[in-house]
Amino acid sequence: MKEQIPLEPAPLAEIPHDYPDDGTHEVAPDVAYKRLAIVNVVFVGLPSAGDRHWVLVDTGIPGATPLIERAAKKRFGGHSRPAAILMTHGHFDHVGGLAHLAKKWNTPIYAHDLELPYLDGRASYPEPDPKVGGGLMATLSPLYPRGPVDVRPWLQELPADGTVPGLPGWKWLHTPGHAAGHVSFWRSQDRLLIAGDAFVTTGQESVYAVVVQKPEMHGPPMYFTPDWHAARDSVRKLAALAPEIVVTGHGQAMRGRAMLGALELLADEFEQIAVPSGSPYLDHPARAEDGSAYCPP
To answer: What residue ranges do the domains of the chain occupy?
Structure first.
């Protein structure tokens, strides 16, 4: 069993607003996230921002689309559509409502160039590793969809200069490892990081951990990470930013000194803490450079 890095949750007093009735949690005046079963989606924009003045990061699991729509309506106003849908990556638990929402809202989808084959029908993800992590989520991973989805009518590449469509003051960062084109989003003004699955704050391999959501610092979900060397480098890149607030794809959003200390420890001891022994991807990572990250659809 890999070492876990326990964390204390951010005191609720430090979180400006909380919406217990629909599970939406505000971590900054213009950033809120909503947990959808096993995964989080993120809303970026001031409350009541109105039509085309906010963005959605990721779209959750299949079947959760009505929950996203209701939360967006409550936060931004009725008939309010996002300026963009931003994808950290295209795994099944992040693209569940993607096609429906893009079509309904007539909203562009942005992703990294190396992630586009999973979103335009060209390629599926590498096979998962069900033997890692020792939990039911990992054991069941061969049953999870590996794609691809095809959202070509709305799909665009993130700008090469690192800017984020619809979000002045933010930058996107290429953080591969969990996926070839995985990205995270960073705002230096308040040191706020939307990390996606580059690292997470729950033990995603375990159903118990997913349900309980005890805050712990972990590497990316083990069963769907095909390049551990790149994953290590991505965690170190993000830790070097010294974020004050992190919103991850799985687990509670965290802030403060304890969070940063745990992230720095994860970066320093990534191999001992995060990397599973016996993974076939240790010696043979699946990478975009040689095409091994892309499987036939």
So the answer is: 5-283
Alpha carbons 244 and 187: distance in angstroms, whole number? 10
CATH dotted code for 5-283: 3.60.15.10
The dihedral region occupied by 52, where left means phi > 0, alpha psi between -120 and 50, and beta the remainder, is: left
Q: Backbone dihedral region of 22: left (phi > 0), alpha (psi from -120 to 50 degrees) or beta?
A: alpha
DSSP 172: E
**First-last CA distance in the chain:** 34
> Which pLDDT score, from 0 to 100, does residue 152 have?
98
User: Is the N-terminal amide bond of 126 cis, ω within 30° of 0?
Assistant: no
Q: At what angle do helices 257-268 and 228-239 cross, to 10 degrees?
A: 140
pLDDT at 242 over 70: yes
Separation CA 239–CA 233 (nearest Å):
10
Contacts of 160 (CB under 8 A, 6+ apart): none
Question: Quick one: tokens of 43?
Answer: 């809303």
Report the alpha-carbon angle 155-160-166, nearest 5. 60
Query: How high is the pLDDT of residue 20?
Result: 44
Band the pLDDT of 286: cuts 50, 70, 90. Answer: very high
